[in-house]
Amino acid sequence: MNCPDHETLSAYFDDEAPELRDHVTSCGECRAFLEDLTAIRSAVLAARPELRRDAGFRERPHRRLTPRLAFALLLLVLLVVPALLLLRHREQTGGAFGNYDAGGRAVIYVKGRE
Amino acid sequence: MRRLAMLALLLTAAAQTAVSVPESRAHVAQTLLSLPPATNRIRFVVRCIEENRGVKRTLYEADIDGPAGTDFTVHLGDRGFTLDASFVNELTASGKLDVRATLTTRRRQGTSRAGLPLWEEDAQTHRFVVGFDQEIEMLPFGGAGSAGLLKFDIVPERSGGTGPMRIHINDIHSNGAIAVNAFHQPHWYAVETAVVESNSVIARGSARIFAGTQGSLALTGLGNITITPRPLEHADAWRYTDIALSGRMFAPGSRAVICRSEWQSFPIDSKRTLRIRVAPERIEQEKGECS
User: pTM of the prediction?
Assistant: First the structure.
């Protein structure tokens, strides 16, 4: 098997590519690269121990949008945004007689008495 | 109050006068003066009606009763739409009404990028003859909206009334959004012109012109001059008249405010002067205060 590139190995180092475990166990070259990474991390953590706190961040479960939540958000956007735009338009243009307004030109004429 | 008192003073000297300004809610507004005996008295019923699915509802009603020549205005407005209509009425020899109507509407169209209001404006003028078996219908919005049709019915009738002009307002449902004003103002102006050169009159002309319309006078050697007299809206309408002048010697649409019944001069060039006098017919003017 060909060795994975360094970026993929870096992902394995971060526990993001467990499928490489068999290869890394049997490949001295890759193991050496991982040992280098371990040494670098140890050195960095020794110099900046406060970074250790961030180690927990990776351990938090990933929050992913469920289809239901995504649908609810979409619905909210589709309903609320036009309503807000409509309200704004009415605020700017509407009035007490707004519901009588057909948008036409005023008309005047003479007709027989009803 | 001071303005009314001054108006009353002026109207006392007038042979054909009267003014009435309605306020909100039902009341009867009367003029301060007595009018000369009215031989041709007319009543106008102005009614604003909402029609929705066959059901009619009256929102506002004004009942005007005055001598022939009584004019009125109709205003309807909210923050998104305004209608200003004026009706100048004359009784014809055939016993019908010659009505000159102007309609100005403004409709709010939103806001500019600079945050300024944008309006769509429309102005119309109409002239029609209305019999006393007919009525005028005015649709401010041109047709029906989601709340129904809003319209004004204006019904003229012969009146047997006497006394000063009256207007009775019944604001039923408009909450002050509709207003009708009735008044009596001069309709015809006698316009005289003279061209003076070296203290000598070298040309004369005269015409009888209806308020707000363009009249033409021929001046020998100078060609035609057109004059449009109209009452002023923002000053003492009983003392001053706004005129628009056009002709070879003036820029088109030149405007001036002149004192009624007084000669006033407009320079044509270094030698000649055009003198104009505009006198409303049948209105006597107090003199001595124009400069």
Answer: 0.64
